[in-house]
Design brief:
heterodimer; A: about 250 residues; mainly alpha; 11 helices; about 80% helix; B: about 300 residues
Chain lengths: ~250, ~300
């Protein structure tokens, strides 16, 4: 059941105009990144590589938040789920299948963007190496967490608010890694708020390996595996919240 | 009496309104759908038809009372394998093709392999979807979506077919075709349960009916009983009773109830009239339905005035 829902969701997502349009936007961005490389005063290839991978992350997260917030909400609003959920299927199968289908589409988008980016870097003479692939895989982890965040927030609030909160989580998620250093300067309730934030916001800094990869700085395998496990744990936690809300939701 | 295929017993349901308010939708709804019947669920917009249907197929949760499907309490996911459901004004994924979508929904209903292929061929054939198999549903008109909606509902040959306003958005030709298809489904052994506010659909398809208004079932029964309640019309020539209507060609007509049949016919014959025709004046269900709902509202206003 989950596989069937995931397959249908994947097909629907990768054929949607917005998905194809964002890939097109990425392509234009990648082409323009070379122009920025040319006019930069430092190493043009490094700047281009940095921009290409940053663009992949930003577009990936935007697609994840936009599609994650719309994923089930649009189904409820347009009643497309009526013909699916009236069949012998548990609601959690449906919600989990939807997430897996979206996740597969997002990963497919990431692979397409990574391929386009690496091909362009190779064509323009920039170095393409294995650490860039590791950075791309970690970006996938970040995007999958953000899709789960968006889906969970939509279950709890309206899609618009969920999108705003999702982007806030993204910004805070990248700041979480600097919280331990900040703690020394905080006292009382401020320290309490910072500690609480660090606990409830996923630490997206664990996936921000892009800059290091561009400069050939190696990532220890333990850090890579830790980041993958961390992403899996967050997705599991967020999906538990989402499923428990949708199990009781009136459709 | 055989176990009904679907029964509601004193079902109450309220939607969540603004803040903590609850909006009552069903107020003690009770009815029984006999196995093998064609059951028309009549009511105006907002009467509670779709809510009852959504509770049956598990789209709405948290009701009070009892809903039994196939003699078992509603809520078991596996029971839905035996149900086909067409939602009101159905929407579908826009980027999936007809064949892909039917394959997806057929698999969800437990069909696989040759059985699935045969089922898709069958519904595409009877709903003229063969040439549209590779079309995406986003390009479909309202009527075409309705056709696809019925196709997916009957795909797995369900025992209970639940249709929410099945004729909406159809042109006259397809309305007639839908009636034929539904009659065929019934012949196959399926029980039909459908909501409508178009009463001619009930007259042409159903043998049982219920009328729902403001979340309450006003009346339920066999359509044949309702037809028997329709008045008789006597057309005759010769001596004309005082309350008969002169038809202007030497004949007259007289309307009376089934209970008065023997007395009125005997009196006419005794007076020397020649009976030309005695037939049942088919009272349109529409008039009856409007009267029934008006009476209900009048009674409700009386009660409110007294309280």
């Amino acid at each position: 059941m989950i596989r069937l829902v995931a397959t249908a969701t994947f097909r629907e997502a990768v054929r949607s105009r917005s998905f194809i349009a964002l890939l097109g936007l990425h392509l234009i961005g990648v082409l323009l990144a070379r122009v920025v490389g040319w006019i930069s005063s430092t190493d043009g290839n490094t700047i281009t590589t940095d921009l290409v991978f940053s663009l992949q992350s930003i577009i990936g997260v935007l697609v994840a938040v936009a599609t994650g917030t719309a994923l089930v909400h649009v189904e409820i609003k347009q009643r497309t789920l009526y013909t699916v959920l009236s069949r012998p299927m548990a609601r959690w199968h449906f919600v989990f299948g939807k997430y897996l289908g979206l996740g597969a589409a997002l990963v497919a988008g990431q692979i397409a963007m990574l391929t386009i980016g690496c091909l362009w870097l190779w064509v323009t003479g920039a170095e393409v190496h294995g650490w860039l692939l590791i950075a791309g895989i970690l970006t996938c982890g970040e995007v999958l967490i953000m899709a789960a965040v968006a889906l969970a927030l939509t279950a709890l609030t309206s899609p618009l608010l969920a999108a705003v909160l999702g982007l806030a989580v993204y910004a805070l998620g990248h700041a979480v890694s600097s919280l331990p250093g900040l703690m020394y300067h905080l006292h009382g309730w401020q320290r309490g708020v910072a500690t609480a934030l660090a606990a409830v916001i996923p630490n997206l800094g664990m996936f921000a390996y892009r800059n290091d990869a561009v400069h050939h700085i190696p990532l220890p395998w333990s850090s890579f595996l830790e980041a993958i496990a961390y992403a899996a744990l967050w997705v599991a936690l967020l999906m538990t919240v989402t499923v428990s809300v949708y199990r009781r939701k009136q459709l | 009496m055989a176990t009904p295929i679907l029964s509601f017993s004193n079902v109450h349901f309220a939607y969540r309104g603004d803040w903590l308010n609850r909006v009552k939708s069903l107020d003690g709804v009770s009815f029984s759908v006999p196995t093998g019947s064609a059951y028309g669920f009549l009511g105006a917009n907002g009467a509670g038809k779709s809510t009852s249907i959504k509770l049956t197929v598990g789209l709405l949760l948290g009701y009070a009372g009892s809903i039994q499907v196939f003699g078992q309490p509603q809520g078991d996911d596996a029971l839905r394998r035996r149900i086909g459901y067409l939602p009101e004004q159905p929407y579908f994924y826009e980027n999936l093709q007809v064949a892909e979508y039917l394959t997806y929904l057929g698999k969800l209903s437990g069909l696989r392999g040759a059985a699935l292929t045969a089922a898709i061929d069958r519904v595409c054939s009877i709903l003229d979807l063969d040439s549209l198999r590779r079309r995406k549903l986003g390009s479909f008109s309202k009527g075409m979506r309705q056709r696809f909606g019925l196709a997916q509902a009957i795909l797995h040959a369900p025992e209970l077919l639940i249709l929410d306003e099945p004729f909406s958005g159809l042109d006259p030709l397809w309305r007639a075709r839908f009636r034929e298809i539904l009659a065929g489904e019934r012949k196959r052994g399926a029980t039909l349960f459908f909501s409508t506010h178009i009463l001619s659909d009930v007259e042409s398809l159903c043998d049982h009916y219920a009328v729902i208004d403001h979340g309450r079932v006003l009346e339920e029964g066999a359509l044949a009983d309702l037809v028997r309640e329709a008045p008789l019309m006597l057309v005759a020539s010769g001596p004309r009773p005082d309350d008969a209507q002169d038809l202007g060609d030497g004949t007259w007509s007289l309307q009376f109830s089934e209970a008065d049949r023997e007395r009125r016919v005997a009196a006419a014959v005794a007076a020397g009239a020649s009976i030309l025709r005695l037939s049942r004046e088919h009272q349109a269900l529409e008039d009856w339905f409007v009267d029934k709902v008006k009476d209900f509202h009048a009674a409700g206003q009386d009660m409110e005035a007294r309280s």
